[in-house]
Amino acid sequence: MSGTELFDALTAAMPDLRGRLASGTELKDYTWFRVGGPAEVLFSPADEADLAYFMKALPDGVPVTMIGLGSNLLVRDGGIDGVVIRLGRGFNEIKVEDGSRLRVGTAVPDVKVARAAADAGIAGLSFYRGIPGGIGGALRMNGGAHGTETCDVLVEARAVDRAGKIHVVPVADMHYAYRHCGAPDDYIFTEALFQGRPGDPAKILAEMDEIAAYREEVQPIKSRTGGSTFKNPEGNKSWQLIDAAGCRGLAVGDAKVSELHCNFLINEGNASAGDLETLGETVRARVKETSGVQLEWEIKRLGKPA
């Protein structure tokens, strides 16, 4: 079934759908690397109820891929088969609750969560200022920075499963580890409830400014990059292993290892997803050869090669 045929079949099967369906959407426009092929069908649900309706009506054999803000994502040049789901405006709400809690839709960028917490005098969430991307990705990857991880501040999350059922998942049931979430793979997170502590807004904002200044000094945040490329192996730092392997500045076409922070890959202009992945695998091979350590990708790679 082609993307157009799938689009037509889904449109016919879901007359009450309120979100937006599109076929053949170029996903490079949705990733920070600015690379990647098309989605057969891209779905942007109107809200959680609309997402649940869609998932319940979706035929079992249709693959589903979830993407967020695309900051830590490499979509391969051949694109993604089936349905790609990307949450939007209906998942952008932030609510301040009693007891220094913040309830947040999963399409909200991490930086906006840090800002909202500061404005409300809620300390403990400023680390999100240092994480590119959105809350959905932070939930799925246990995103963290500056000594704090999502698991440290999460109370519970809401999710819709493949059958369209809505779940409320306590943090203990997320089975978090370093850059890992053990919740079922088919869960699409729609909302998170965070627990902070009372704090002085001015001090929180000052802490956020320090985090932002640090990022700008040591990371290529103004480049087309996907953030940290590889997870830190136990007892090591990926950038140090990459540097020791002589990979700082290494390039494949327009894909390059950042000279500022060599755990970042950069698209310097016209790199393809294939160039970036080849560069990453070359780095992994050289690090393995020089140190005996096998780096594990932190960037999520999706789709098929060209």
Classify the beta-strand content into a percent band.
25-35%
Enumerate how many helices there are, as a single number: 8
How many beta-strand segments?
Answer: 19
CATH class of the largest domain: Alpha Beta
Please tell me how large the radius of gyration is. 20 Å
- Whole-Å distance between the termini? 19 Å
Q: Output mean pLDDT.
A: 95
Bulk shape = globular
Structural class: alpha+beta
Secondary structure: helix percent: 25-40%
* Physical arrangement of strands within the biggest beta sheet: 6-7-13-11-12
Order of helices and strands: HEEHEEEEEHEHEEHEEEEHEHEEEHE
CATH topology of the largest domain: Uridine Diphospho-n-acetylenolpyruvylglucosamine Reductase, domain 3
Proper CATH architecture of the largest domain: 2-Layer Sandwich
Poorly predicted segments: none
Query: Major sheet, described briefly?
Result: 5 strands, antiparallel
**Whole-number tally of structural domains:** 3
